Amino acid sequence: LFTGLVQGKARVESFENLNDEFARLTLRFPGNALEGISLGASVAVNGTCLTVTAVDGDAASFDLIVETLRATNLGKLIVGSEVNYERSARVGDEIGGHTVSGHVHCTAEIVEVVDSEHNRKVVFETSDRALIKYVLPKGFIAIDGCSLTVGDVDKATGRFNVWLIPETLRVTVFGAKSIGDTVNVEIE
Q: Which UniProt keywords apply (predicted)?
């Protein structure tokens, strides 16, 4: 269980495709982000719940199975890419976003970005148009693990938008995202 409050950005240290159905992802985390973590712990990486399979200092590894590679944007990562991360919630933690499972429903492509002085509007088109009926205006949605509020929804085109504040752009990978990028979507 996660809160949808991204704790920071980690960098891809290595991505090993061991075959068409399995890969190993190693991320380098900032500061003491991995303090107290153990094998088997859950970490949301771009909103995808992954299990820690190895820890080496400030790096952790995760195994990506065929369904993870098929259903998420993680298979497109390359060395040097940045990802959002959040360690699993603990009893007593503040839930300032919304409860997020880390089970990605679909991906979406960024089709429009509109910047203004203190806001960024991002328009997404879902990869599975049948799921757009579950995306509700002013409803919760997790995009790359970040709890956000849906703005407008166009069911005919499978598009929806969110608005991002400067703090979200600073703390998450959204500051570097552009048209054509793919994100993970968990619909609430």
A: Repeat, Transferase
